[in-house]
What does this fold into?
Amino acid sequence: MAEVLFIVNPTSGGGKSGREWAAITGWLPSTGLKYDAVLTTRPLEATAIAERAVRESRPVIVAVGGDGTLNEVVNGFFHNGAPLPTTSRLAMLPLGTGGDFRRTLKIPLDPRAALQVLQTGIPRRLDAGCVSYQAPDGSTGVRHFINIADAGLGGEVVYRVNNSKKRLGSVTFMAASFMALMSWKNKPMNVVVDGVTHDLRAMQVVIANCQYYGGGMRMAPTASPTDGVFDVVLIGDAGKIETIRGMGTIRSGAHLDEHNPKMHLMYGKRIAVSSTEKVRIDVDGEDPGFLPAFFEIQPGAIEFITPR
It folds into this structure.
């Protein structure tokens, strides 16, 4: 059994991952890595492949693709809401659309540099989030995430992105954000953060383990995947024009420094979000369902190979 297993989503980024992976395989053997590679053929297959590898304690499992691919592989490290016992470590070769998770950990976009991290990086225990939510068929779904989840406008954005061809990276996110915003109406939401209730009319509620989402938007500039808590950003009854004007400050991470009364940052380990209206959720750039949702941090749940 080879030490490294690459789980490749060739359709990520509108086929960009598949094309880049084909080029990488031309020089990958020269790195000296002993590896196997599996290309996925359908949604959620990466989770099943990863779970088998995790149960075997394959030393290193690499998600090759975008944040959606990473999320599928992350979910292979868990079963019935709990981490699987394993010595497997996770890593990422970012080739997909958004590439937001890798920004917080400073994983290089250059494939050669990213692969060098596998050989010279250091393993760190990272927190993961677990969310239960209402699936489209009305049942209760459970999913893990490693980057950011949110409810509200962000859920509509990822729904639009995931139903597009996703060929243009951050341009796709920006276009989807604008289209979603134009038709969006803020929703009444009930948010309970570690037992403290907040009732508000909200544009979105962001549950952040890491800092970036939406193609480079630094929504949670102080979030850390090693501190054992979520950064929770409540964006209240903001209007369309002020939201468009504020995009630049969110991208730079300066929005929380402006003392905007419609934005609130808090910290929590267990967050419940509900609404009397139908509200989509976003989980690491995927759109699995709707509110009500319950988010819980699982400290140090996954071992990840990070740059030094």
